[in-house]
Design brief:
By secondary structure, the chain is of the alpha+beta class. The chain contains 12 helices and 20 strands. Helix 1 packs parallel to helix 8, helix 6 (255-268) packs antiparallel against helix 7 (271-279) and helix 8 packs antiparallel against helix 9. Bound molecules: flavin-adenine dinucleotide. Residues 8-14, 31-34, 38, 45-46, 115-116, 144-146, 150, 168, 221, 286, 305-307, 313, 316-320, 322 line the site of flavin-adenine dinucleotide.
Length: 414
């Protein structure tokens, strides 16, 4: 009988894990807390080559998944291009990966509406217990349940996300709904740099997944400082006066908060970027946290993706890292004969990678959290457009099943 993995969390990390574990002879079943289809999480993401390679390894198409950008520009308040540099990146959207991964998984391997409450480990197996009272049994639990992971909370309660001191507002507009004069920015990765703030904007697949001119979307990520004790709770308080902690559902963001954002957009951003903020009916924000886990393996339980490490989004690699974690786990299970040895190998590889990415996110975000002096715009643009090469997933040795003794990541620009 095949060994069985219980994957907790049915987002991209969990889906990559299920596919890649199945490809090395495991029976993998996903349990996702949210009952509805997740595909509406339509935010834009930056991609790296490893993501396309892992889609191919699963047997899914990786072409036309995103929009290619060949130029990075910095726009001043009037809309003039103050800096420009050639880059080569593919920008995509979360749902462009979610949909094919979800559809390719057999229906009986994905259970929606299952919220994990605890894990019970025994000598011969492990069980996941869910809020509806049901339980599932297997040989391994994969915690792919994100930054607020309940799996991690049970095993590693001291590892807590650290607030970066700022939020990311997000807005998106469809190319087809914008005047022709917007066309030039759709080919660019653009920056606006108000004092101690950063607005990054780039093309993404449109609402229907279109990646060709006329059918794309333009995604705005606007980092703004928000003090933890004062401004963040103010932003997260709805019109009835209830504070939702550090994350408020988008429809509950107060009208006066959105109106104030629009005023600042008009006053401080390049007109084209401001217009996208103004046209977005429901801009929303995410408070930025990062996280480092000192351990990833606990007997028959392992953490991956955002449950294990979260870098600030400047690195633009959270999805790729979740996919690379899943591949490293599958490869370790295939290469080692015992579970303990496989998980130890996985932990050794991915802990170094996670720490390196978190450190890079902190360095790039230092301009915003006030811990570094104002940065040269050219340098900021160059660092944000770097591609990451995940050496161990792309090496010939890896493909033949021989893992390198450690994971290296390199940043490169072309
Ligand atoms: C502003 C911003 C910009 C970003 N930009 C990029 C980018 O450009 N490129 C990029 O690659 N990444 C980007 N990211 C990061 C990226 O979104 C994440 O790294 C990625 O989604 C991680 O996937 P995951 O599957 O590990 O976790 P998640 O996507 O968080 O999924 C966790 C899943 O677990 C489920 N879950 C939680 N608790 C339970 C439970 N108890 N039981 C069952 N299920 C549970 C959740 O419902 C969720 O579906 C960005 C993030 C932010 C905030």
């Amino acid at each position: 009988m095949k060994p069985r993995a219980l994957v907790i969390g049915g987002s991209l990390g969990g889906l990559f894990a299920a596919h890649l574990l199945r490809s090395v002879g495991w029976d993998a079943v996903v349990f996702e807390r949210i009952a509805e289809d997740l595909a509406s999480r339509g935010v834009g993401i930056g991609t790296h080559n490893a993501l396309a390679e892992l889609m191919q390894r699963i047997g899914l198409p990786s072409g036309e998944m995103g929009v290619e950008v060949r130029s990075s520009i910095c726009l001043d308040r009037t809309g003039r291009i103050a800096q420009e540099m050639p880059i080569s990146r593919i920008m995509s959207s979360w749902s462009s990966y979610y949909r094919p991964l979800r559809e390719a998984l057999p229906e009986d391997c994905y259970h929606a509406g299952k919220s994990l409450v605890r894990i019970e480990q025994g000598a011969n197996g492990v069980a996941a217990v869910f809020a509806d009272g049901s339980r599932a049994e297997g040989d391994l639990v994969v915690g792919a349940d994100g930054i607020r992971s309940g799996v991690r909370a049970q095993l590693l309660p001291a590892a807590q996300p650290a607030y970066a001191g700022y939020v990311a507002w997000r807005a998106v507009a469809e190319e087809a709904e914008l005047p022709e004069s917007f066309r030039p920015i759709f080919d660019c990765y653009s920056f606006c740099l108000p004092e101690r703030e950063m607005v990054l904007s780039y093309p993404v697949p449109g609402r229907d997944g279109g990646t060709r001119p006329g059918r794309r979307g333009y995604n705005v990520v606007w980092y703004r400082p928000a003090a933890f004790a004062t401004e963040l709770p103010r932003l997260c308080t709805d019109a009835s006066g209830r504070c939702h902690g550090v994350a408020i559902p988008p429809p509950l963001i107060r009208a006066d908060v959105v109106a104030a954002l629009r005023d600042v957009a008009r006053a401080q951003l390049a007109p084209a970027i401001a217009e996208i903020v103004l046209r977005t009916q429901q801009p929303f924000f995410q408070a930025i946290f990062d996280l480092e886990s000192p351990r990833l393996a606990f007997g028959r339980v392992v953490l991956l993706g955002d449950a294990a490490f979260v870098a600030r989004p400047h690195v633009g690699a959270g999805v790729t890292k979740a996919a690379v974690d899943a591949a490293a786990l599958a490869d370790a299970l295939a290469a080692e004969s015992g579970l303990d040895a496989a998980l130890a190998r996985y932990e050794r590889l991915q802990r170094g990678l996670g720490s390196a990415i978190v450190a890079r996110g902190r360095r790039l975000g230092a301009y915003l959290d006030g811990s570094a002096p104002t940065r040269d715009p050219h340098e900021l643009m160059r660092e944000h457009s770097a591609k990451i090469k995940f050496t161990h997933t792309t090496s010939a040795g890896q493909r033949s099943g021989q893992l390198r003794p450690d994971t290296r990541i390199d940043y490169y620009y072309d």
